[in-house]
Design goal:
Elements lengths: L6 H20 L4 H20 L3 H8 L7 H8 L4 E2 L12 E8 L2 E8 L5 H6 L7 H17 L3 E7 L6 H5 L2 H13 L5 E10 H5 L6 E5 L3 E3 L3 H8 L6 H8 L3 H7 L4 E3 L10 H20 L3 H13 L7
Parallel strand pairs: 3-4, 4-5, 5-6, 5-7, 6-8
Antiparallel strand pairs: 1-2, 2-3
């Protein structure tokens, strides 16, 4: 699947495939033409993805072929074991987590999970967790702390579930409790936005020593569509809303709201998943090595100071 702004690239790739097929069937030497077209495609890709608008970044973050949390966990760990349930209400399928080994280091992974098809999307509630999902996440955080294992969260959600039942069971309280508790965790905590990072739904598992964003992701208090519907009473202005929100990884890094950006393969994480898995694995190992060299007291103080310094306060 290609996005609207990728159509010129897709058309050229189609012509290239036809040219190669013609060469095989007719035994005609078109190697020069193929090389020229491949060079043109590469140049077009570099120009296109180097100059993406904020809305186009949002589109890439939602690409249906993009790796989700479980894709990363099963590919960067040697033996991921999922842990279920919040020991209170039920097991929220939109929030997944468990222990996994990364080159000998046991890590507690927690993240939102989306679905690939209609049935999976319904089961995963489109990656929108209920209160029991956040309480499950907190249970896993505390378990990791008990056994002295570092925590890595993978964030990819359009927001916490806003349904009546969710509010009835304390959605706001569950997220607030997670934020409070994550500040005081004694083990290293790394938070990585791998897709969408919307509002409190993302923030509920995003308080860490290091908060990182992948190159083609977004992080904001509201989605461009919702912002457009509030300001213009229509979704038609979502592109302008995305520009105004300044929600990309570059924007967030510039504001000092995230600590770093993880590069993606040209065209997005879905273009070369093996490379993306290795890149993420290497970054996690590097960040954990630095964080584990510090004492729990140092990490907690730095974590609190970092978030306390965000924004401007006028009295």
């Amino acid at each position: 699947m290609s996005l609207e702004f990728e159509q010129p690239i897709t058309e050229l790739e189609g012509k290239l495939a036809e040219m190669k097929q013609l060469a095989e069937s007719s035994q005609v030497d078109v190697s020069d033409a193929v090389a020229s077209l491949e060079k043109k495609i590469q140049s077009l890709k570099e120009d296109t993805y180097k100059n993406l608008t904020r809305w186009q970044r949002v589109q890439l973050s939602r690409h249906p072929d993009r790796p989700y949390t479980l894709d990363y966990l099963y590919n960067i760990t040697d033996d991921f074991v999922e842990i279920h349930g919040d020991r209170n209400v039920k097991d929220d399928k939109a929030m997944v987590g468990g222990f996994g080994t990364v080159d000998g280091q046991t890590v507690m992974f927690v993240g939102q999970q989306k679905g690939r098809n209609t049935k999976q999307r319904q089961m995963r509630n489109f990656g929108m967790a209920n209160p029991e999902g956040y309480r499950k996440a907190l249970r896993l955080f505390k378990m990791a702390e008990k056994f002295g294992k570092p925590i890595v969260t993978l964030i990819d959600t359009p927001g916490a579930y806003p349904g009546f039942e969710a509010e009835e069971r304390g959605q706001g309280e569950a997220i607030a409790k997670n934020i409070q508790e994550m500040f005081m965790l004694k083990v290293p905590v790394i938070c990585i936005i791998i897709g969408e990072g919307a509002s409190g739904g993302a923030l509920g598992i995003a308080i860490g020593d290091k908060v990182l964003m992948m190159e083609n992701t977004w992080y904001s208090v509201i989605s461009p569509e919702s912002c457009s519907s509030i300001l213009w009473r229509s979704w038609d202005f979502k592109e302008q809303a995305a520009e105004a929100l300044k929600l990309t990884a570059e924007d967030m890094k510039g504001f000092g709201l995230v600590d770093g950006i993880i590069g993606e393969p040209l065209g997005g994480a879905h273009r070369d998943t093996d490379q993306m898995y290795q890149t993420l694995k290497d970054r996690i190992k590097s960040e954990l090595k630095d964080l584990m060299a510090k004492t729990p007291e140092e990490r907690i103080k730095t974590r609190i100071d970092k978030f306390s310094d965000m924004g401007e306060v006028v009295e």
